[in-house]
Structures are given as structure tokens and as C-alpha cells.
Amino acid sequence: MNVFGVDIGGSGIKGAPVDLERGDLAAERHKVLTPHPATPDAVLDGVCEVIEHFGWSGPVGATYPGVVVDGAARTAANVDKAWIGVNAAQKLAERVGAPVTLVNDADAAGIAELRFGAGRGRTGTVILLTFGTGIGSAVFTGGQLVPNTELGHLELHGHEAEERASTRAKEEGDLSWQHWARRVQKYLAHVEMLFSPELFIIGGGVSRKADKFLPLIEGIQAEVVPAQLRNNAGIVGGAMAAALAGRPADSASHPHPAATTLTTPDPGSAAGF
Fold this sequence. Notes:
The protein has 273 residues and is of the alpha/beta class. The chain contains 8 helices and 15 strands. Residues 247-271 have low confidence and may be disordered.
């Protein structure tokens, strides 16, 4: 069974049909740059461009870099504030003429990793963190997702975590891998203190360079591993969410509870952060 997944990020919009039996892309993904300003209409134009690249007609699972409740955006940390309150699932469904499920981007990546990737078979507390324009999070316990956790906005040493430890912060600060790894380490230690997970999964585009920074992270009791699906996890998870929703096209604007309460099919100083 193939379902289309599209991942909306602060820097790029990427998507592809997904083979849900294998948990992998059924075709090479297509990507366009996220427009700036990243207003709803401009971003949805990009989403439609990605979908139309494949001539796709059928259900779509889309991710959004913020809190999503009943298909509507509640926050907009890394896109234009005009997103807040917009029922993007409904707007996109009207444009593509097919059912659309909208979920938080890190939540989507998390359900993909727990079903097909680094979290497969884990039943304890697992936290996936996506490092990119911001820091997204997905928290699972007993295989069940706690949606919309947004742990990238935790405050640590007087700073919002993603302002100091995201991939964007590394690039804008021209930080070495070692310097950035120290910031990530402090962030992981803070999250570990709060949640005591058995496993951290590190996702986002930087996961493909895990060998450059994960060996530099010390003192974390939980296992810390890179995402196996790498930066495709959001696409796969978006498609999974659409398949789980399983609703008729005329109810596209009313997401099934599975879209927001997903379970996996398988069981220092301030200046230093």
C-alpha cells in the first residue's frame, strides 16, 4: 500500500509516495525550498508542487513544524505567524481534492522510527529529537505517543534550547562539531533529568552525520542513537498517519483521533550552553 507523505520544514518541503509495508519511500523524494516569508498560502503552494511532481491523486499525510490539533496549527515558531489558527489540513485537502492528515513533524518522524527504525521493539520511554531549523520532539511510552510535546522550547540556562542547540544555531554560529556536541549534551542531560528515557533517537538532516558528533556526547545514561530513516522519517510518518486516519475524502477537514494520538503498530553557565 502506497500513501503520499510530505514533510514541511523551516528550510525545505519534501515528499514522496511511501510503501507502508516496507516503511520506505516508493520513489526518490522531491524537494522545494520553503518560501520566505513562510505564509500558509505560500507554503501550501510548495506542498502542492511536490505532490503534483508525482502526479499523485489520493490520501496525503503532511507534517507541520509546530503544534497541530484537529488539523489546525496552534504554534508557528519556525514559519510565519499567520499559520496560527489555520486549519491547514482542510485548506490543503480542498486544493488537492483528496483526504489530508496533518501532524506535528517530529511526531510523524517518531512513529516512523518506532515502527520501522531505531525504536522498533522498544516499549519503555523513547524520545526522538529532530535537529534542524529548530528542535522537534516526539515522546513515547509503552509504544504510545504523547503528541505535540515541543521539547525544543525548553529553557536551559536562560536560553530556549533550539536557539542554542539546533542545527541552525550550529550553522549561524559557525560552531565546530565539538562545541555543538557540548550544547547538545547539555540539552540531552536536561531532557533526561525530566523524563528518564531508555532511548534517545537523534533525527533530522544532521542524523546522517551522526559519526561527527554522537561520539563526542558523554554522561547520558540513556542510549543515544541516530535515526535509521534519517531525514525521510517525517515523510514516512506522515504517510503512516494518513493511513491510520483511514477516513473518507469528504471528512478531510476532520482528522481522525489517530492523527493526533498515534500508537505504533509494534509493541554549565549560560554562556556555555
